[in-house]
Amino acid sequence: MVKKEPAPSPDKYPLAEAVRILESGDASRSTPAKHAPTVPALSGSAPPPTVSSEVPRSFEAKHDVALNATGSEAVLLSREWTESRSVPVPGKDGRVVYAYGGGLPIVVCAPLHVCILELEPGEKIAGEPHIGDSIRWEISPSASGSGPDATPLIIIKPRIAGLDTTMVVPTDRRAYYVRLESKPNEYVARVAFSYPEDSKQKWQEYLAKQREAEQQEKAAEERVAE
Predict the structure, then answer these.
(1) How many domains are there within the chain?
(2) 179 and 212, same structural domain?
(3) What range defines the domain where residue 205 resides?
């Protein structure tokens, strides 16, 4: 036989008290008050300063070195070349043309505009260009045309106005050393080069071939005369 458990005593479950509390609406007596978690107050300290990636124009080195006579003379000679006037001339399709080796060429750019540095057709860029301020200037490669006679281009864009730096572009024929400046609105859209040394070499080759042809013609006349 299964033994039946006795019915629970009313004293075990205070139902009457629970009914009285519900009827009176005072439920706070039966359950403990719940409190929202305390949120710590925010500190009144100032937010951390914003770190800028831009190099301030007023930057000056804290330390310097003394130059001897050799170093001073080298700096003087280099300054004479960089400060010498390289006169640009107008070229085809809006190009501003500098004579390569005739002084330090200057490319003036402006924010939100593109400047193009055009090299010699068929020339090959030998490595990534080096720029003094790689943070505030954007440079990227491009090309005009295709095949062995394609013209390499360097696309130049400044982030802000008031910048002044230099750039070196190595190629399989020469190295270009260029000064870059940024203005608020003024800019030079296309910069190209002429190559006086190449023209001189072409003339020398032409004259050498002409002399060779004259010598061959003279030798042929002498053989006929014999």
Answers:
(1) 2
(2) no
(3) 196-225
The residue ranges of the chain whose pLDDT is under 70 are 1-62, 198-208
Round to whole Å and give the CA distance between 59 and 163. Answer: 13
Residues near 191 by beta carbon (within 8 Å), at least 6 away in sequence: 95, 96, 97, 98, 105, 107, 115, 116, 117, 118
Q: Residue 43 has what pLDDT?
A: 54
Write the Ramachandran bin of 37: left for phi over 0, alpha for psi from -120 to 50, otherwise beta. Answer: beta
pTM over 0.90? The answer is: no
- The sign of the torsion formed by the CA atoms of 173, 82, 180, 190 equals negative
Looking at the fold, whether 154 and 166 belong to one and the same domain comes out as yes
**So what's the pLDDT on residue 150?**
95
pLDDT (0 to 100) of residue 157: 97
pLDDT for 81: 78
Question: For residue 44, how far is the Cα from the chain centroid?
Answer: 39
DSSP codes of every residue in the chain: -PPPPPPPPTTTS-HHHHHHHHHHT-GGGTS----PPPPPPPP-SPPPPPPP-SPPTT---S------HHHHHHHHHHHHHHHS----EE-GGGEEEEETTSS--EEEE-TT--EEEE--TT--B-S--EES-TTTEEEEEEEES-GGGPEEEEEEEESSSS-EEEEEEEBSS-EEEEEEEE-SS---SEEEEE-HHHHHHHHHHHHHHHHHHHHHHHHHHHHHH-
